[in-house]
C-alpha cells in the first residue's frame, strides 16, 4: 500500500449533513440528502465523501459529516447545508481497494507513516468513495482516504 504525502483534497459545490449515526441511520440520512438534492433540481456529480470525527462504541454511533458533490448551488434546508468548497491541505492519502472491513489496515499504515515522519494528525479523516461495493462482491470497493496533518 502506497501512502502519498502533502496531498490536498478540494471539491466544489457540495451538500453536507453532520450527525451521530449508526450505520443504518447514516445510509438513511445519505438517502434523504440525495432526495433533497434531487427535489431541488440539482444532480449528484460525484460519489459521497465522509468525514469521521469520533465514534461512541457504547452507543454504536459515529460522528460523521456526509458531503455530496452537486452540479449547482441549492438552498440550505434544516440539517442539509450547501458548501461552495471543501478544501483540506497537507494530507497523507492512500487508496483502499477490496473488502471495506479492511479499511482499518489502511488507517494504521497512514498513522504509522505520520508518526514516523513526526507529524501530528488532525481530525477528521476524509473518505472519498470511488466504487461502492456490490452486495455480491465486496472486492469491487474502492476508496481514497485523506488524513490531514499538522505540518
Summarize this structure as a short list of keywords or feature phrases.
46% strand; 7 strands; alpha+beta; Multidrug-efflux Transporter 1 Regulator Bmrr, Chain A; 151 residues
Provide structural commentary.
With 151 residues, this protein is an alpha+beta fold. The chain has a single domain, classed as Regulatory factor, effector binding domain (Multidrug-efflux Transporter 1 Regulator Bmrr, Chain A). The protein contains 2 helices and 7 strands, in the order βαβββαβββ. A 6-stranded antiparallel β-barrel has the order 1-3-2-6-7-4. Strand 2 and strand 3 form a beta hairpin. The longest helix has 17 residues. The model has no long low-confidence stretch (mean pLDDT 92).
Structural class: alpha+beta
The radius of gyration computed from the alpha-carbon positions, rounded to a whole number of angstroms, is: 16 Å
Helical segment count? 2
**Major β-sheet profile:** 6 strands, antiparallel, barrel
Quote the distance from N terminus to C terminus: 22 Å
| Approximate strand percentage | over 45%
Amino acid at each position: 500500500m502506497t501512502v502519498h504525502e502533502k496531498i490536498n483534497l478540494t471539491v466544489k459545490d457540495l451538500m453536507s449533513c453532520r450527525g451521530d449515526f449508526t450505520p443504518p441511520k447514516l445510509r438513511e440520512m445519505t438517502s434523504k440528502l440525495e432526495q433533497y438534492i434531487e427535489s431541488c433540481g440539482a444532480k449528484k456529480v460525484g460519489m459521497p465523501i465522509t468525514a469521521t470525527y469520533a465514534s461512541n462504541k457504547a452507543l454504536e454511533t459515529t460522528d460523521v459529516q456526509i458531503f455530496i458533490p452537486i452540479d449547482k448551488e441549492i438552498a440550505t434546508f434544516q440539517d442539509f447545508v450547501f458548501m461552495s468548497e471543501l478544501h483540506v491541505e497537507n494530507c497523507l492519502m492512500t487508496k483502499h481497494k477490496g473488502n471495506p472491513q479492511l479499511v482499518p489496515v489502511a488507517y494504521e499504515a497512514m498513522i504509522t507513516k505520520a508518526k514516523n515522519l513526526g507529524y501530528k494528525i488532525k481530525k477528521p479523516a476524509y473518505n472519498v468513495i470511488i466504487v461502492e461495493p456490490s452486495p455480491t462482491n465486496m472486492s469491487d470497493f474502492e476508496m481514497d482516504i485523506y488524513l490531514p496533518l499538522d505540518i
